[in-house]
Design a protein that fits this description.
The complex is a heterodimer of chains A (640) and B (175). Chain A is α+β, with helices and mostly antiparallel strands and 640 residues long. Chain A has 18 helices and 10 strands. In chain A, a hairpin with a 2-residue loop joins β2 and β3. The chains are: A alpha+beta (640), B alpha/beta (175).
């Protein structure tokens, strides 16, 4: 019954989306008058979709094997958390989560957005309904999550063991909330373009959504990076995998958007550009979802693409993005630009920020799809890997960070004061780091060295916008900006330290053998078998010491029988100045085992930086949401 | 902004959609050419997987005639699917040996009793050592080894009805 109720709710929600679109298109009377109905329909659509999703969660929690999706992706012996997370750990469930967030976002806009004029809001909710309608159709026609299986099997097939990880259970929903949160920016841009209203009002309506989505994307990417780092057992934290790039591209576009949107909100400038970014950001989310869900770019070990599903999503994507871009091309000529500004100004800095971010986005996009395009054109198979991305994107990212040393301190429109004093603290730190690193570590590469210098310089520079203000009266978005920029500095320091100072040892060790890595002396003790709830493992005992005190590390090689898979569980010891990372490899001759050990100084700063960036965004968001009630006395210098 | 440049994003989208549509229409050739093909079988010596049937060592494969090695496990569902096809290949005169991966004797015996036993020798590989040495990453996989112990062909995944002719041809070619 639950499955049938869920399916019925999906059909009903799809019908409501169609109704919402029809009302917004002006059927049934004047748009301005029907806005109350449109709002109500949007809220109902959101709630009913949420009900459908809750039904699927309940089926997974009950391990109802008469539902095909549950039987194929769950198992009655799985821990509770993974039954729950199994709801979205598969194609149909994740698409249902996607559309649930989409419909709920539309409902929340309908509920809370009171400042935008009725016609623009109506057009935007119409655009949101059009988006939802396509994805409802996809679920109902090509990916029904509630399909029954008759006869029901005794038990299910399990879940990919790599995904049985508490961090990963909540990684996809975080990313999805971020991806789909950007749909509101997309719909508002479409509504604004249709109504010819792309001024500060649209920017202010968009801003909380962009900020919120961006915070979640930042958290999702940070968590995903840490997951890959400790779960894959390769010691790396970013692999430029298509699936990683799928989350990075919307983030880059959203980062650019979140900066340009302030120019539009505060100064009325960069109108066309901001609308374009709003369209691109959600387009990248759809492209990313398509990439991940279709498996079209992943390795030979992924499942084959279901041509019907792939074609369906591709058609939706082409329709929505194509229509929005065509609308942009047709309408943008009528948009008046805002107040002029000089090159050395806050606007100038933000334009430079946007250009750099866009170029990085272009580089990642081209690198991700170049193999596909090359094969389509010439039949030649090739792969684009870290050497391309690292060598092209890293210098640009550092240039962006260098820009951050001064741009946030500039005034709107025209900076009259000399900029050198504002640059001094950062320049001093950068010079000291450069000199110190050349003396103490002459052999590190140029990029890590520059990273250390620029990251170091950014630590004081990111806090300078707070200097000379009354800290109690400083608006939250300014605090948020400083914190997020500090987070960028911290993350860059972590990345540079990891690539400059990491030590790696590959050893074959037997009981009693010792291996030196960085400051650590690691003694191999023994390997013992171990059983978990749904796996068996071989676990090594390593005793690591430096100076006084001993740390015990227990890396595992885990075997999951359902479905049969082996995973490596790295053992990581975190101290204030870095991580010792150990992986148990294959057995070698004579009771000895392969061991991989890394000493990674300050590597944790990468993820700490990511968390700070997200916190900064959250502070800015809080400032925006609560400011709505307060008076807008700092509108002219608002940022975030 | 010039009239044309306003539509540049649309062109990028069109190129993207065209490339992806092409990929959907012509899925990639997922055949992996084994690195082990053309090389001698790596040395291994596996204990018998079931009582009463000999184990398998690399020396057994230098028998003067081509043989097939099936890498399987009793817990592997696709292995059940390919069992009747292995029996068919055996009936065409192909000698087949096997390596049982991470398995217990009782389970292997039950599997063979239920699904048929086309194998001459079955070696037990409880830690996947021989499997990895052969360059096999999953079950089931099937190898054809010629009379001198050189690997001639590697088939990944379960044997499906359409694969039988190819396997028989490869076996003929290895004679």
């Amino acid at each position: 019954m639950i499955a049938e109720a869920g399916l019925a709710a999906l059909w009903l929600a799809a019908a409501l989306a169609a109704l919402q679109l029809a009302l917004a298109l002006g059927l049934g009377g004047d748009q301005g008058k029907s806005i109350k109905t449109v709002r109500a329909v949007a809220m109902a659509q959101g709630l009913i979709t949420l009900f459908a999703f809750a039904a699927l969660v309940e089926l997974f929690l009950r391990s109802d094997m008469s539902v095909l999706l549950v039987a194929e992706n769950s198992h009655s012996q799985k821990p509770w958390l993974y039954k729950f997370a199994g709801t979205w750990g598969n194609h149909e469930g994740s698409m249902l989560l996607w559309v649930t967030v989409l419909a709920l976002a539309g409902g929340v806009v309908a509920l809370f957005e009171r400042r935008l004029d009725a016609r623009t809001l109506g057009a935007s909710l119409g655009a949101q309904a059009a988006l939802a309608l396509g994805f409802f159709a996809f679920l109902l026609l090509a990916s029904n999550p509630f399909e029954r299986l008759d006869p029901a099997p005794l038990d299910g097939r399990g879940l990919n063991p790599l995904l049985q990880d508490p961090g990963l259970a909540f990684h996809p929903p975080t990313l999805y909330l971020g991806y789909v949160g950007l749909s509101v920016a997309f719909s508002l841009a479409v509504g604004g373009l249709i109504r010819g209203n792309v001024g500060p009002a649209i920017a202010r309506a968009m801003r909380p959504w962009v900020l919120g989505a961006w915070v979640l994307l930042t958290l999702g990417i940070t968590a995903g990076s840490y997951w890959a780092y400790y779960e894959l057992g390769w010691g790396g934290w970013w692999f430029w995998d298509p699936v990683e790039n799928a989350s990075l591209m919307p983030w880059l576009a959203a980062t650019a958007l979140l900066h340009s949107i302030n120019v539009l909100a505060a100064r009325g400038g960069l109108r066309a550009w901001t609308m374009m970014l709003a369209l691109v950001a959600f387009s990248m989310s759809m492209v990313g979802t398509f990439l991940v869900r279709s498996g079209i770019l992943t390795s030979v070990h992924s499942f084959a693409v279901d041509p019907l599903r792939g074609t369906f999503i591709l058609a939706l994507l082409a329709l929505y993005i194509g229509a929005a871009l065509a609308l942009f091309g047709l309408r943008i000529a009528h948009v008046k630009e805002g107040a002029p500004f000089e090159i050395v100004s806050r606007e100038g800095g933000l334009v430079a920020n946007n250009l750099l971010l866009s170029v990085i986005l272009g580089i990642v996009f081209v690198g991700t799809f170049y193999p596909l395009i090359a094969e389509a054109m010439s039949g030649e198979k090739l792969s684009v890997g870290p050497p391309y991305f690292d060598s092209v994107a890293s210098p640009l990212a550092l240039a962006l960070a260098a820009l951050m040393l001064i741009a946030p301190q500039l005034r709107w429109r025209r900076e009259t004061k000399p900029i050198l004093p504002g640059l001094m603290p950062g320049m001093l730190v950068a010079t000291a780091v450069l000199l110190g690193s050349i003396l103490l570590a002459p052999n590190i590469g140029l990029l890590p060295r520059l990273g250390l210098a620029i990251g170091g310089a950014l630590v004081p520079a990111s806090l300078l916008p707070l200097v000379g203000r009354s800290l109690r009266r400083t608006p939250l978005p300014v605090w948020g900006m400083a914190l997020a920029h500090l987070g960028v500095a911290v993350a860059i320091l972590g990345m540079a330290s990891d690539s400059a100072f990491t030590e790696e040892r590959l050893a074959v060790a037997g009981p009693g053998d010792r291996v030196q890595v960085g400051p650590w002396l690691v003694e191999f003790r023994d390997v013992l078998p171990l059983a978990g709830p749904n796996w068996t493992a071989l676990e090594a005992e390593l005793r690591a010491s430096r100076g006084s005190g001993v740390t015990v590390l227990r890396p595992q090689s885990r075997f999951f029988p359902q479905p049969p898979t082996t995973t490596n569980e790295a053992a990581i010891d975190t101290s204030w100045n870095g991580q010792l990372y150990a992986v148990l490899g294959e057995p070698a001759e004579g009771g000895r085992w392969q061991l991989r050990l890394w000493w990674k100084p300050f590597v944790t700063l990468i993820w700490l930086g990511g968390i700070l960036i997200a916190l900064g965004g959250a502070l800015a968001l809080a400032g925006r949401v609560f400011r709505r009630r307060a008076h807008g006395f700092y509108r002219a210098e608002s940022f975030g | 902004m010039s009239r044309l440049s306003r539509f540049v994003p649309l062109l990028v989208l069109a190129a993207f959609v065209a490339a992806v549509a092409w990929r959907i229409a012509s899925p990639p050739d997922e055949k992996i050419n084994s690195k082990m093909v053309g090389r001698p079988v790596p040395e291994f010596a596996l204990a018998p997987a079931v009582p009463g049937k000999p184990g398998l060592s690399s020396a057994d494969l230098q028998s003067g005639g081509p043989r097939m090695i099936n890498v399987f496990a009793s817990w592997c569902v696709p292995c059940i699917a390919e069992a009747p096809l292995l029996a068919e290949i055996k009936a065409r005169g192909v000698p087949i040996d096997a390596i049982a991966i991470r398995d217990r004797p009782a389970d292997v015996m039950a599997f063979l009793a239920e699904r048929g036993d086309p194998f001459g020798r079955i070696g037990a590989d409880p830690e996947s050592k021989a499997q990895l040495a052969l360059g096999s990453s999953g079950v089931p996989e099937t190898f054809i080894v010629d009379g001198n112990g050189i690997i001639r062909y590697q088939h990944m995944g379960p044997i499906e009805p359409g694969d039988v002719a190819q396997l028989l041809a490869e076996w003929e070619a290895a004679r």
